[in-house]
Structures are given as structure tokens and as C-alpha cells.
Write a structure and sequence with these properties.
The protein has helices at about 10-40, 50-99. It is mainly alpha-helical and about 100 residues long.
Amino acid sequence: MSDPGLVLRQGSMAEIEQALRTATDDIRTFLTDLLDTVDAQTAGWTEETPSRQAQRRFERALGDGVTRLGDALDRLAEEVAAHAERSRAIEVENVAIVG
């Protein structure tokens, strides 16, 4: 008897998908909270100061990076869900063939 090449557990796939979605939400929330804190602590800076301009540039770059990361994690979660659904359909088909 041969060993199976791959064992896929639907519950594990669902946990992975949820972990990716939770991580995405947590990262976005953390960034929003962080930027709110920075804004509160630098409230005295006017938009014309070099410090504020540099801070805004960094904030935009950081936000863009987090957006790309979040989008990538969202796509990964979608692919995990799609893979889980495909594997479930294959398993149903295999059971029907064997049964």
C-alpha cells in the first residue's frame, strides 16, 4: 500500500484562510492607530515645515506598502479558500467514484 502524497484537512484550510484575513485586519488597524498617535503627538507641526512634509511622505509610503501587503494577504486568503473548495469537490468526486 502506498502512502498518500498529500493530506488536506478542510478545517486547517479554513483556519489558514481566517488567520490571513485576521492578520490583514490587524495590520490595517495597527497602522491606523499608529498614524493617529503620530498625528496627535505632532499636532503642533504645520504642513509647511520640512519635518511635517517628511513625515507625510513617509506616512504615504508606509500606507502604500501596507495597502500592497493587505491586498496580497487578501489574495492569498482567497486562493486558500478556492483551493479548499477545489479539493473538497475532488474529494466528493473521488468518494462517488469509489462508492
